[in-house]
Amino acid sequence: MLTRWQKFYTNDPKLGSIAPSQCAGEAARLFAAAGKKQILDLACGAGRDTRVLLSSGAVIIGVDAAFLD
Questions:
Q1: Per DSSP, what are the bridge partners of residue 39?
Q2: Which of 2, 42, 44, 61 has its CA 20 to 30 A from that of 51?
């Protein structure tokens, strides 16, 4: 399983240009409205949604099993 995702993250140079999910924007708004200051983003992959969560003003910790340089 990790091999599949590792290939996905490593071999796709366009990965960083993929738009974040709509859910991430909504989550960022909800976290900000609730005054949350720390968010743990499990299975964050390359961080495309993690970057959106940063807009909530919270400290974000992203954790994923894939290795990225």
A1: 60
A2: 2
Range of the domain at 44: 2-11+21-63
The C-alpha atoms of residue 56 and residue 69 are separated, in whole angstroms, by: 26
Distance between CA atoms of residues 16 and 10, nearest Å: 11
Burial-class residue 55 by CB neighbours within 10 Å (0-12, 13-18, 19+).
middle
Whether 29 shows a pLDDT value over 70: the answer reads yes
* 68 inside domain: no
Tally of domains within the chain: 1
Task: Identify which has the larger pLDDT, 69 or 3.
Answer: 3
CB 21 within 8 A of CB 41: no
Three-state secondary-structure class, residue 58: coil
